[in-house]
Design a protein that fits this description.
With about 200 residues, the chain is of the alpha+beta class. Helices cover about 15% and strands about 35% of the residues.
Length: about 200
């Protein structure tokens, strides 16, 4: 390991061929507050495993993350959704952050190269999408927004839920394609600059 002495799980095998997508942006990491919580893919988050959270890549995607400041890289599997903070594009597990030097810095500019995810029967390759807004520190603000959105999007399922960083509101459109989710997100304006709408892939 690059930093620390904690025993970590092995990195996933990097698939053959070229990545299907590549993006550059800020990486962060998530650890103790999320440890042992169930991730978006249904597995329990293990901060010592080589995993990461991403808002839009399909669950199970294998990605190579390279810290552009030191050229250290790690291969991780996408098992969760996030980060929901500003312009960050990926949240690394604690161990993956240590392997790339992101742990001490907190955030770092990285390149994320994604490879084709495994194909599961019955899963729509285009994905199912929703809109997520938050995090609100005050639950009352989240509930107020939820009630307003329920009236505005009467055919959508609108829920409010608590997370480690605050309260969130999610809109699950009846037509759960990316274009519909993007259209809904662009029409939502929340006074709180810390509670921006994000489109999120559900599968």
């Amino acid at each position: 390991m690059a930093e620390g002495t904690t025993t970590t799980a092995a990195q996933p095998a990097l698939p053959h061929g070229k990545p299907v997508s590549s993006e550059v942006g800020l990486a962060s990491w998530y650890g103790p507050p999320y440890a042992n919580r169930t991730g978006a893919d249904g597995t329990v988050y293990n901060q010592n495993a080589m995993t990461a959270a991403h808002r839009t890549l399909p669950m199970g995607s294998i990605v190579r993350v390279t810290n552009l400041s030191n050229d250290q890289s790690v291969v991780v599997r996408i098992t969760d959704r996030g980060p929901f903070v500003g312009d960050r594009i990926i949240d690394l597990s604690l161990s993956a952050a240590k392997e790339t030097g992101v742990y001490r810095a907190g955030i770092a500019k990285v390149r994320v190269e994604a490879y084709a995810p495994p194909v599961h029967p019955g899963v729509d390759p285009a994905g199912k999408w929703c809109v997520q807004i938050g995090a609100f520190l005050d639950e009352a603000d989240a509930i107020k927004l939820k009630n307003n959105l329920m009236r505005r999007y009467s055919t959508a399922k609108v829920i409010e839920f608590a997370g480690p960083t605050g309260h969130w509101v999610r809109i699950n459109p009846l037509k759960a394609d990316k274009a519909t989710a993007s259209q809904i997100a662009s029409g939502i304006h929340v006074p709180d600059p810390g509670a921006l709408p994000y489109i999120v892939r559900l599968n």
